[in-house]
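Entry for beta-D-galactopyranose complex. Fields follow.
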Amino acid sequence: MTVGLIVLCTILAILLIAFCTWFLAMKADGKCPLCILKAIGTKKLHIDLKDVPDYDNNVSVSPMMGWSSWNTLRNKISEDSIYETAQVLVNTGLADAGYRFVNIDDCWQSSMRDEAGKLQGDLETFPSGMEALCKRINALGLKMGLYSSNGTHTCEDLPASLGNEELDARTIASWGVEYLKYDFCHHKTLSGSTPIIEYIDLNRKGYHSEYVLKPEMAKFTGRTKVVKCKDLPSGKGIGFLNHGAGTATFRISVEAGGLYAMTIHSKKNLLNAKRYLQVLVNGNLYEAHFPSGRSFTPDARLQLEIRLQSGENTITLCNPIASMADSSYTQYKRMGEALRRASRDWAAFTGTPEKPITFSICEWGFGNPWNWGAKAGNMWRTTLDIFPNWKSIVHIYNRTIKLYRHASPGHVNDPDMLEVGNGKLTFEENRAHFALWCMMAAPLVLGNDIRLLEDGSPKSMDILSILTNKSLILIDQDPMVRPAKRIKKQGSIDVLARPLANGDTALCFFNKANKVKPIELDIDSLKEEKYLRFNRSGIGYEVHDLWTDERYQATKITASVPPHGVKVYRISR
Ligand code: GAL
């Protein structure tokens, strides 16, 4: 007992000493130790988005519809297979039904950037180049989409866009691309750590130091303050900028506006880790990435090129990164903004109408992107990849149906591309998968090899009839973009409903069981669910069964729901 107590006390004492040592080391390195502790919940977003407007790039308010090469063709793609598929979209009537994007997923890129550092199509499989392919796809009345990753490489280890966001955005905009899926492979989380900033020097090219920003000239918020630092020549600098601890703001008046070199003098790393700082110049974001390593001298310099206006300027230093969610938001926002600028600037440069680029955040739901996706892009994946089996579809549905509040016109949850027609999914499972995606206001991106649908077989006809069901597509594309809420669970049946722009309601019974299940619903009971704003009354409602196309008057809906199947209705008065 006593021995146990001694051991316990010793362990606690060691932990306490370790904690105090760490705490003091952090303080000596100009870090707010308490703020570092925030980083423990990696999914929590600490950046305040209250005043950040939603991502607005003039794309359609309804979820995007198209086809993607990934689910079936994977890395076996070429300009021929992509163009053939585009032609099939037109020939089969899928394009008329709304599927207009031809999205080339991973593996379109050459492993070499070109001599100007730009991404280029694989030189063997896309020999005519991506711009030429885009033009041919456009000539069919369709739009072309591409893929990159928010990391050094894509998931198939080809070159991706981290550090090249502006260039890659400009490159794809110049090709006429109208969709970018931006993956999460090989990503590098931004550091919440920031070095002590000794001072900042500003000068135009060809001039010596013109303006110097010293710590004592700054106004601080939060815990940010001037700290002592014996390693730096001046003995002090701005500390406690890490993990959203606070900000330092300078106001500076300059005579000549224009481009300035900003030299940030800072203390090198104590812990051999990367560090990060955001510099907001009159509201425009510049990012400083400090390399790891300490080397011979303790003081470092890092340069950014910034734009100052003649007269008053505000320069704010901060590091809002406290979690993986903060890092993901910042990096996806960076690409989203680069794309908006790129399509706008390309249109201005060429004098052609702007082709806005739908920005698809593929972060697999790791940093809860539904909390920030609408500020950074048009759609965000809610989970890891879909597979052509029932378990995968139900798993993704279960995760995504809960996120119904996180969608608005132009911003939707993305439960991944469709597997309709793939694997061993049964007819009812294919129907259920499609209807659930429509109920959830999901992007409808075909993931099957649609070239096979031209064989005229009964199976192909079934798949085509599912994918082109106009009434269901109308539900998916409803401009109010209010995804279905699960309003009730009755045994194995989920009851889903979503309000529609014209005041109608879409209703779906989803049976997860392996047996047929009966259900009855009193339509007036929908009034109890505030989200539906179902305030109609009368002696009856018009019920439209969206699979059988039957229409009837009723006050109650009675149905037998097939195993792994759905019944879907549009209810109007
Ligand atoms: C995954 C992504 C898939 C597909 C694939 C390509 O990360 O979720 O949808 O794009 O990469 O390598």
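NOTE: Residues 2-28 form the longest helix (27 residues).
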